[in-house]
């Protein structure tokens, strides 16, 4: 939906688009310590959301832009994050045809955009989500107080740079985050090389002393190539430091000794989408290699099918299974939830507007 300005001049120079997604279905999870769980839930393939996106022509190829986007749960109508309004995205910026784009506010990281847009045939959703094993939790997905610059596209190449302030009194580095992305998209090939660095320090507050920790660092290469009869996907990530390989659920399997987040790991994904009828088959294999002495590796196999009822509406089914090794504790979740066990089945419906 496009909403013009009230004045004739505003109508000619600016517009606001209302957009969104409603995704709801049934999830059945098995294998966790709490037992089997079947539920109606929201955001399985992509989080249900409503957003407002606007542009204003400032002349000479320069535009002002903004995005405000909130997530909600279609199963019960509540916000997906309490005490927030535009928790998914909230930024304003300037866009130039020749100079690129600069935005300020709450935004996606280059790491997560590469995972969801390039690396994963499941698009970071459904039971087969890349988020189950690759580092995508919290600020690895989106970060507040961020400045993001994106270059113009030249011969298929472009770049992104993110810097987010930690905003902790007494320290210029505690909590800060930065990342980079080098992108190529032309013809059937889409590839990205990204780096993400999160400072885990906390500044002193009153009588509570400062806490100094190692940074969390991830470097990832992702690519997909469309052969028409099949679209092939590949991703490789190297993760080092604190919070570089978070475990989404602290101890989902009730082990006597809880799983330990790896401080040194590699991730590999191989996948494909295959056109089939009026939809496409999605499949992937992901392996996490924990290189510490704990050797808590994990493998995930996933298969799904997305059927297009129209350009905006689709029905889906997906299944994934994780094999944890040596006390690892990874779970099969989806786009919006971390999951509760090592197996999950999804069936649902999604509509974009």
Automatic annotation (TrEMBL):
Signal peptide: none
Membrane topology designation: Multi-pass membrane protein
InterPro entries per UniProt: Gram-neg_bact_OMP (IPR050298), Gram_neg_porin_domain (IPR033900), Porin_dom_sf (IPR023614), Porin_Gram-ve (IPR001702), Porin_Neis (IPR002299)
GO molecular function: porin activity
Keyword annotations: Cell outer membrane, Ion transport, Membrane, Porin, Signal, Transmembrane, Transmembrane beta strand, Transport
Residue ranges occupied by any Porin domain in the UniProt entry: 5-326
Subcellular location: Cell outer membrane
Entry's Gene Ontology BP terms: monoatomic ion transmembrane transport
Any one Pfam family match given in the protein's UniProt record, by short name: Porin_4
Highest rank taxon of the organism: Bacteria
GO CC, alphabetical: cell outer membrane; pore complex
Known partners and oligomeric status: Homotrimer.
Protein name, entry field: Porin
Native source organism of the sequence: Duganella rivi
